[in-house]
Amino acid sequence: MGDRYNIHSQLEHLQSKYIGTGHADTTKWEWASNIHRDTYASYLGHFDLLNHIALCENESKARVRFQLLKKMIQPCGPPHEKMEEN
């Protein structure tokens, strides 16, 4: 029983420390947005990936960087309306 409490305590600590790990109330949209933003940030942070994308799309690196940054604002579109519980 003590191990189970310890594991849940550690998980709650990680979830409060890092936004991308989610929590019990994380919606599908929030989870998908975090995954997309992490992916775009990885593309921007790795120079070779950015070069590869620019080459494949036949665009300049600056244009690809701008497009990826723009996509990070709302990667999965606007959030869905939450249904209120009565």
TrEMBL record:
Keywords, in A-Z order: mRNA processing, mRNA splicing, Nucleus, Spliceosome
Record has Nucleus as a keyword: yes
Matches recorded under InterPro entries: SF3b5/RDS3-10 (IPR009846), Splicing_factor_3B_subunit_5 (IPR017089)
GO cellular component, one term: precatalytic spliceosome
Gene source species: Adineta ricciae
Coiled coil: none
Family assignment from sequence similarity: Belongs to the SF3B5 family.
Protein name: Splicing factor 3B subunit 5
Subcellular location(s) per record: Nucleus
Domain of life: Eukaryota
Biological process according to GO: mRNA splicing, via spliceosome
